Amino acid sequence: MEVLLLLEAAAVGLVIGLYAIAPSAHQERLQLQLQEIARHPVQPLQEERTGEGFRNRVLQPFLNSLSTQFARFLPEGQVDVLRARIERAGNPTNPGTIFGSRIILAVIGASFLALGGRAVLFALALGVLGWRLPDFWLAQRIAARQRTFGRALPDVMDLLSVSVEAGLGFDAALSRVSERFPAPISTEFGRTLREIQLGRPRSEALRSFSARIGLPELDSFVSSIVQADELGIGIANVLRVQSDQMRTLRRQKAQEKALKTPIKMLFPLVFFIFPAIFVVLLGPAVLSFAKTFGH
């Protein structure tokens, strides 16, 4: 009997000890998990999603709704023209944003009409400027993109010519260009290559590529490639001739800019530099005359 009682007491003590130990081990696991979570905070990701959500859920739908209401009063085809200009600028925005920005800026400028008086002309000028400001911004983006392509086009022609003369096909040469040059050149050449690989005729893909850029030199290059492809002329010779022409044209443009430089420097000289020189040279003499005649 005493042995059984001792065994029962030992079992009861073991169970009580396990219950006493279990909560502390569980708390230790919770503490470790909390420390691990503290090492990897999620607050920055939440803030980023919140900011992105406001732009996509509030601002962009508001501009799109304004443009949808306003597009009903636009002449037919103007939306397509604007969409083509946006694509030529590299798709930095969409027609809805442009239309909405026009309306908002024009309304902000015209709101000064409420002041009346001399502020009427100022308000009208601000309204017109606000209406035209998105177009100016878009034109600047188009010009910058065209300058990028114009500077890189001779090097592109050289790489295409060397690749074709080395035995590569024209499509493989386009792939080399898309790999070697940075954006936006690589992006546009890669898009043209994907269109050709998906089954679009090469002539249509190249003409679409030229229309997206709107550069006269690129139009000439595309026309030469399409004619050579249709007439069966060797593309390597055409590329070599086009490369020489591109370099000659770029040198001529540089010379033209150099010749225009003196005329452009004339206005800063007349309005800013010459007055300062006159003040430095004639200032002491004027002060001496004033002092002499003053006495």
Please describe what this structure looks like.
By secondary structure, the chain is an all-alpha fold. Among the domains are: 77-145; 147-253, Receptor-associated Protein, CATH 1.20.81. The chain is built from ten helices and no strands.
Topology at a glance:
Elements (H helix, E strand, L loop, with lengths): L1 H38 L3 H29 L6 H11 L6 H16 L8 H47 L4 H11 L4 H13 L4 H12 L2 H16 L3 H60 L1
- What summary fits the major beta sheet? none
Q: What class, by secondary structure content?
A: mainly alpha
Fraction in helix = over 70%
Give the end-to-end Cα distance, rounded to a whole number of Å: 138 Å
Which ranges are low-confidence, i.e. pLDDT below 50, for 5 or more consecutive residues? 2-26, 41-51
Shape: extended
CATH topology of the domain at 147-253: Receptor-associated Protein
CATH class label of the domain at 147-253: Mainly Alpha
- What's the average pLDDT? 78
List keywords for this structure.
295 residues; mainly alpha; Receptor-associated Protein; 10 helices; 86% helix; extended; disordered N terminus
Concise summary:
It contains 10 helices and no strands. It has helices at residues 2-39, 43-71, 78-88, 95-110, 119-165, 170-180, 185-197, 202-213, 216-231, 235-294. The protein is extended and about 90 Å long.
